[in-house]
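Please produce the structure of this protein holding uracil.
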Amino acid sequence: MTDTRPDPLDPATLLRWYVAMGVDLAVEEEPVDRTVAAPPPPAPVPAAVPAAARAPMPPPAPAAAPAFAPADFAGAATLDELRERLEAYEGCALKRLATRTVFGDGPADARLMVIGEAPGADEDRSGVPFVGRAGKLLDKMLASIGWPRETVFITNVVPWRPPGNRNPTPEEVTLCKPFVLRAIELIAPDAVLLLGGSAAGALLDRHEGITRLRGRWQELPTGAGGIPALPTFHPAFLLRNPPSKALAWRDLLSLKARIGSAS
Ligand code: URA
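Below is the modeled complex.
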């Protein structure tokens, strides 16, 4: 009897299996820690030269340049300049895997800022944060306390979609955090709503989970002074856990009590 089972070593079978497992991008074989400078390339081994012909030692070469120039987000004087610097930034590998840079959306003088984790597939396609299912719920949440989406500045701690919607790594968050911090300083809102554990953990430097952090006002240290920040559940989490909406509603009421409504 002939064996009709697919050959696991057949490249087409392997590719179909990858697709079925949710792989949608090819990345490098080895993880790269982009928070550290690349080591200098090894010096070429010189051919043996007779002692008499040896030239005096040249002065030492300057230290090797880092693998990427750290972005000077802090030096951006306006949101437009910050956007330009972010678009030009090549230090985070996520950018090479993403379709668009998702800078942020909303008025530069917004009194309320909302910060999520990272763009998903819909945001990666459109270049606008929170336009997918979670975004629709976020719009409703904000509108319910008198802050229509157009009045709020919305962004993420990481402006590029992590492949397969995985969580951003701590290194990726570290590389992108100066961008979001500068955005907060330039907008200088009355309050920041932090959606989910990644945003809250990264910006408040806290390691407790969001269940512990949510609903407790914190001070977010920035160059523009301390800005009140309220961690709450991420709308994507609320879509998966509807009973938690009651707690999120409490947080929204606390936000409204602190900064009122948009008009
Ligand atoms: N989830 C996020 O954290 N940010 C988005 O922009 C969309 C979904």
